[in-house]
Amino acid sequence: MLKQRLLTVAVVLPLFVGLIYLAPNAVWAAISAVAVSAGAFEWARLGGLSPVGRSVFVAVVGVSCAILLLLSVLLAQTLFDSRILYPLCLLATLFWILLVPAVLHFRWQLRQPWNSTIVGWLVLVPTWLAAVVMQRAPECLMLFLGAIWIADTAAYFTGRLFGRRKLAPRISPGKTIEGLAGAYVAVLVYITIVLRVYLPEAQLATYVSLWAFGFILTSLSVEGDLFESWVKRQAGAKDSGDLLPGHGGILDRIDSVTATIPFALLFFKGIVA
Fold first, then answer.
1. pTM to 2 decimals?
2. What is the dihedral of CA 225, 145, 127, 28, to 10 degrees?
3. Domain count, the chain
4. Burial readout 190-227 (b: 16 or more C-beta within 10 A, e: otherwise)
5. How many Cα neighbours within 13 Å face the side chain of 192?
């Protein structure tokens, strides 16, 4: 399994990074829409939709992305229009900050067709939109993804080495409070290093604001992971799919990103707008 995971990373990661830095924004948007549509199929299956319902949901997500992309081509900058972009990302961020904690705490069921459809659209489409807009500043997108990857990695290894107290045993037994603490520390260190490299003259206020951003980002990242774990637990599934050998499905790889990238875009809107 480890060999399979490493081989998948060796193939996918260079392609992914190359697309972020080299692909025209419209090409990145189209490829991302295909990936999000694959994630939509996985979500529909986990959400208990019928075969027809799955097809409809995938079509709705794909068409939503296509309409936004087409409008951005025909009516220059529509995709980046603050009247569309920021309200949708704000809605998604509020969903993750206000509603998802309640879903996890009370372990609400999400397998009813309407619940699954609405929540899935709100999880996937703002993620696609924010990823497309942030690719206009590829360095910013990569630094954001670096924080997410570091949080996930630090949480895993810290939990394996020091984990004793379960974070959410009824949802994801493997996650620990110690792992979460390790993720917080690792992301704060990462942000400090990034500031020292890219903004050596940064004032204390900049450090404090980005540390706060990193704290919220890490919290949302873990929440996204837990939320997908809860959805999979309801469906009785170990992985969201098998598209990525050794890694599961698309949703298994982007669960933390879906919860964080709308918030990140709102935070960095002056850079990527």
1. 0.92
2. -140
3. 1
4. bbeebbeeeeeeeeeeebeebbebbebbbbbbbbbbbb
5. 8
Q: What is the 3-state secondary structure (H, E, C) of 106-122?
A: HCCCCCCHHHHHHHHHH
Burial of 34 (0-12, 13-18, 19+ CB in 10 A): exposed
Boundaries of domain holding 246: 2-272
């409809």: which residue's tokens?
Answer: 56
Q: Residue 94's CB: how many other CB atoms inside 10 A? A: 14
Residue 173, Cβ density class (10 Å: 0-12 exposed, 13-18 middle, ≥19 buried):
exposed
- Using alpha carbons, select from 260, 262, 240 the residue that is nearest to residue 44: 240
CA distances from 11 to 4, 8, 41, 222, 258 (A): 11, 5, 23, 26, 23
Report how far residue 273's alpha carbon sits from residue 265's, in angstroms, rounded to the nearest whole number.
9
- C-alpha span between 25 and 130 (Å, rounded): 12
Of the candidate ranges 21-30, 69-78, 80-89, 200-209, the one whose mean pLDDT is the lowest: 69-78
In the block, tokens 């529509």 appear at 78
What average pLDDT does the segment 168-180 reach?
Answer: 93
Extract long-range pairs of 15-18: CB within 8 Å, 24+ residues apart: 17/142
Separation between Cα atoms, residue 225 and residue 230, nearest integer Å: 9
Q: Is the pLDDT of residue 247 over 80?
A: no
